[in-house]
Amino acid sequence: MKTRAAVAFAAGKPLEICDVDLEGPKEGEVLVEVKATGICHTDAFTLSGGDPEGIFPSILGHEGAGVVVDVGPGVKTLKKGDHVIPLYTPECRECEYCLNPKTNLCQKIRVTQGQGLMPDGSSRFSLDGKPLFHYMGCSTFANHTVLPEIALAKVRQDAPFDKICYIGCGVTTGIGAVVNTAKVEPGSNVVVFGLGGIGLNVIQGAKMVGANMIVGVDLNPARKALGEQFGMTHFVNPKEIDGDIVGHLVELTGGGADYSFECIGNVTTMRQALECAHKGWGESIIIGVAGAGQEISTRPFQLVTGRSWRGTAFGGARGRTDVPKIVDWYMDGKIDIDSLITHTMPLDEINEGFHLMHEGKSIRSVVVY
Ligand code: NAD
Ligand code: DAO
Ligand code: ZN
Ligand code: ZN
């Protein structure tokens, strides 16, 4: 079939809207009509050329929601008409990783996904007879896409696609980092570096679990009001601090953060986040993805004296199990997604969504097909 897609032909170039060819689902695969997709910082990172795994030409996008149109042989848990959210972290429920409660990093299709291919080693997308690569196993910047059954969470039918698509990455990553990875306890003091599409969800997760102080750190003063709307109790703009930001945060929190979260992807702020964590027990969670070849550093004594450094992917969530529950949280009014979706646009205007992100004017732009 033909489908309309925004194609990334090369790093650093705008996406081009094309009618591409899409093969139907093979064994264990599902054809999905994508109804809406968010534009995440990670799509921009890959498009910039900074992502070591970035492959071109490809169809980016990993934060979608849609409807099952067709299923391949052997698909057991999904049928035509089901509403689904694609998962860049699948959940096969049988690999060594899925069977270990300490991780959500299912490895069943990891190798081919990293190569921009489906599990059989081929691509379903092509243009003029030449293959286009898949992205993060999702490729939601296409009106139709094919995914393995294990990379789709089935969700309730009454949830709006243009909001729940954000649960496919940003919402789950931010809230999940608090709930699944850090397991923040009520009364904890939390510091969040970067109040974008991820950091604001960390804030709402921290508020949801009953954190005490929730300190937001951002260079963009416009993020203060939104942070406060989501439960931030204190805002720190590093440009307005005299002296050391770490010392300032330690003093503000009365000794350091019980939990800090880095939601920028900057190795300098990763160090600051670790070092503002409380001596003896503070945990710092890296969510941001740093550029290719970058390294983190600190004095080892920071760890010797009881701070710990951790990381999280997709908020530690097991997608097929956890994503439907987060959709319920949204539908029950337990979490706010609507206020974070600042712009919507048709696919033809997707490059404008990237501009808004780079200019710091959007939290989430959502493409509605
Ligand atoms: P974003 O661009 O929306 O937000 C980043 C925020 O950081 C902005 O508000 C910006 O003003 C602020 N900022 C930038 N430099 C700063 C500095 N030096 N000090 C303080 N604030 C600064 O990005 P996002 O969509 O929220 O994504 C954040 C990071 O999370 C990215 O690196 C993204 O790739 C990563 N990410 C990770 C996962 C995961 O599973 N680990 C999932 C999604 C995204
Ligand atoms: O299993 O080796 C692996 C990698 C899993 C990929 C997880 C990616 C998480 C961070 C990228 C940002 C997502 C938008
Ligand atoms: Zn993302
Ligand atoms: Zn698995």
From TrEMBL:
Enoyl reductase (ER) domain segment(s): 12-367
InterPro entries: ADH-like_C, ADH-like_N, ADH_3, ADH_Zn_CS, ER, GroES-like_sf, NAD(P)-bd_dom_sf
Pfam families assigned to the protein according to its UniProt record, in alphabetical order: ADH_N (PF08240), ADH_zinc_N (PF00107)
Annotated EC: 1.1.1.284
Coiled coil (UniProt feature): none
Classification via SMART domains: PKS_ER
GO process terms (BP): formaldehyde catabolic process
Gene3D superfamilies referenced in this protein's UniProt entry, alphabetically: Medium-chain alcohol dehydrogenases, catalytic domain, NAD(P)-binding Rossmann-like Domain
Cofactor needs: Zn(2+)
EC main group: oxidoreductase
Entry's Gene Ontology cellular component terms: cytosol
Entry superkingdom: Bacteria
Keywords from the UniProt entry: Metal-binding, NAD, Oxidoreductase, Zinc
Catalyzed reactions: a secondary alcohol + NAD(+) = a ketone + NADH + H(+); a primary alcohol + NAD(+) = an aldehyde + NADH + H(+); S-nitrosoglutathione + NADH + H(+) = S-(hydroxysulfenamide)glutathione + NAD(+); S-(hydroxymethyl)glutathione + NADP(+) = S-formylglutathione + NADPH + H(+)
One MF term in the entry's GO annotations: alcohol dehydrogenase (NAD+) activity
Keyword Oxidoreductase in annotation: yes
UniProt family annotation: Belongs to the zinc-containing alcohol dehydrogenase family. Class-III subfamily.
Job of this protein: Has high formaldehyde dehydrogenase activity in the presence of glutathione and catalyzes the oxidation of normal alcohols in a reaction that is not GSH-dependent. In addition, hemithiolacetals other than those formed from GSH, including omega-thiol fatty acids, also are substrates. Also acts as a S-nitroso-glutathione reductase by catalyzing the NADH-dependent reduction of S-nitrosoglutathione.
Protein name listed in UniProt: S-(hydroxymethyl)glutathione dehydrogenase
The organism's taxonomic lineage, starting at the top: Bacteria, Pseudomonadati, Pseudomonadota, Alphaproteobacteria, Rhodospirillales
